[in-house]
Specification:
Chain B: It comes from Bradyrhizobium retamae. The complex is a heterodimer of chains A (252) and B (257). Chain A is built from 9 helices and 10 strands. Chain A is α/β, with parallel strands linked by helices and 252 residues long. The two termini of chain A are 34 Å apart. Classes of the chains: A alpha/beta (252), B mainly alpha (257).
Chain lengths: 252, 257
């Protein structure tokens, strides 16, 4: 795992409906240290997904630079694992084969990559599901697969694009707790995009509040780990931090 | 198992009723066998055809043409469809063309095919090839272009290069459409085959039917029609449907019918 540096990042594109250039991301700078968990939080249309897509290399940036471990980003690559809101699993592959996909692309032998996949599936309590196809799993289980598929490839940075937005509220809380547990065990560098303030504060070491394509403020989250909803729901510090972030995001 | 047996029986029921009506009413009204045969004489014609080997010979000739034409078409259509589907510009440019040729009846190719290949195997296989080729290419193209961008992005961010993207994502992702294309294409091919064989050859099921007419042998004509229908049902139920079940239904990419 390596650190991620974003300097004066911007994205401007031509909007054919408005007939003008629109700037979705303004001059965003950000440093994410190795093993850090950073959440970018903001309302719909604030540019957070655009930032993530640029880091992932899915879309080009129009200004500034993105460096992973000191090297500039040019297109998608296995140094940046991505977890998608829509899961984006391969329906024609079993759960095991989905998780083994990254190692397979690196040329890892079948026996070895299946061992790796089994290890990561166990981490997310998915051992039972190894032989099943994604369509046979619930949304929550599919996204567990999505998370460990990205992790099993041991990326330098893990990019998560509102990964829990399309599962039900109970499952979401379980997934959030599991993610913090897995993060503590593996300590990947994570950038997590969300519009859910409580989720951001619950997960992150640091929350970046974003609005209209600009960084409003960075807030350090000093809550102790391991974190669970049972203990944090009535935690004064959690409420204070969430309140501050919420105010920032709403006032902008 | 019991469910499958009962659904198979249910499938056969209307045919059994039809056979019974045929066996009863044709003799009852004393229909001229030059206009429509008795069931017994059709069965007789079938037994004779199997015994003297002519029926088997016709079936073999027809099936060989279908197999060769289809396999050749698939070998070219699938890679071409994928290549076209990868590029949105190429695919939108060529789509109208492939739609046009997909709906053009296979039999319309026969006159030009006989000029190019002469009467016989070449011309008929060409008709089959066309019927399968255009539909499968078009469906493959469609299948590739409907793979969600997220899935392609996921593969790219897991380290898939161009070749892996093709074999691991684009081909399996397009498979539901490819299978649909093969099923429709083969359906057209089968119909085109019979028509083409009436015109452009001296062996095959279509030829068997057409020649029987010259001798007023309605029992051979009806036998041929039955064989043509039954062969198609067997092909569809025993070859195509199981492929679909084993792949795309298992993957949840189509709704179970």
């Amino acid at each position: 795992m390596k650190n991620l540096t974003i300097r004066n990042l911007s994205k401007t594109y031509f909007d054919p409906y408005a007939g003008t250039n629109v700037t979705a991301v303004h001059d965003v700078s950000l440093n994410v240290g190795q093993g850090e968990f950073v959440c970018i939080v903001g309302p719909s249309g604030c540019g957070k997904t655009t930032i993530l897509n640029m880091i992932a290399g899915f879309i080009p940036h129009t200004g500034g630079e993105i460096l992973v471990g000191g090297r500039p980003v040019k297109g998608p690559g296995p140094d940046r694992g991505v977890v998608f809101q829509s899961f984006a699993l391969f329906p024609w592959r079993t759960v095991l084969e989905n998780v083994a996909f990254g190692p397979k692309m690196r040329g890892v032998r079948k026996a070895e990559r299946e061992k790796i996949a089994h290890e990561y599936l166990a981490l997310a309590k998915l051992t039972e599901a190894a032989g099943r196809y994604p369509a046979e799993l619930s949304g929550g289980m599919q996204q567990r697969v999505g998370v460990v598929r990205a992790l099993a490839n041991e990326p330098d940075v893990l990019l998560m694009d509102e990964p829990f937005a399309s599962v039900d509220a109970q499952t979401r809380m379980t997934l959030q707790e599991e993610l913090t547990r897995i993060w503590q065990e593996k300590r990947p560098t994570v950038i997590f995009i969300t519009h859910d303030v409580a989720e951001a504060v619950f997960l992150a070491n640091r929350v970046i509040a974003l609005s209209k394509g600009r960084v409003l403020e960075e807030i350090d989250v000093d809550l102790p780990r391991p974190r669970s909803w049972d203990s944090l729901n009535d935690d004064a510090r959690f409420k204070e931090l969430s309140g501050r972030v919420r105010q920032l995001v709403r006032s902008a | 198992m019991l469910h499958r047996l009962s659904s198979a029986l249910w499938f056969c029921a209307p045919f059994i009723v039809l056979l019974v009506l045929w066996a009863v009413f044709i003799p009852y009204f004393d229909v001229n066998p030059r206009l429509f045969p008795h069931l017994s004489s059709v069965v007789q014609a079938g037994i004779e055809g199997i015994q003297d080997g002519t029926l088997i010979q016709h079936i073999k000739a027809s099936l060989l043409r279908v197999a060769v034409g289809t396999v050749l078409a698939l070998i070219i259509a699938v890679p071409l469809g994928v290549a076209m589907g990868v590029s949105p510009i190429v695919s939108s440019f060529l789509t109208p063309l492939f739609r046009f040729f997909s709906v053009l009846a296979g039999i319309a190719w026969i006159p030009i095919a006989t000029l190019w290949f002469g009467y016989g195997f070449g011309a008929i296989t060409f008709v089959i090839f066309n019927a399968v080729f255009f539909i499968v290419t078009y469906n493959t193209l469609l299948g590739v272009s409907t793979i969600p961008l997220h899935v392609r992005n996921a593969a790219a961010s897991l380290g898939a290069g161009r070749w892996a993207m093709l074999t691991e994502v684009l081909l399996p992702g397009a498979l539901p459409n490819i299978v649909t294309g093969i099923r429709t294409g083969l359906g057209f091919a089968w119909r085109g085959l019979i028509a083409a064989e009436m015109i452009a050859t001296n062996v095959g099921l279509g030829y068997m039917l057409f020649v029987a007419r010259d001798f007023y042998r309605t029992e051979v004509i009806v036998l041929g029609m039955i064989v043509i229908g039954v062969l198609w049902l067997l092909l569809d139920r025993l070859v195509l449907a199981p492929i679909e079940r084993a792949t795309i239904e298992r993957w949840g990419m189509v709704q179970r019918a």
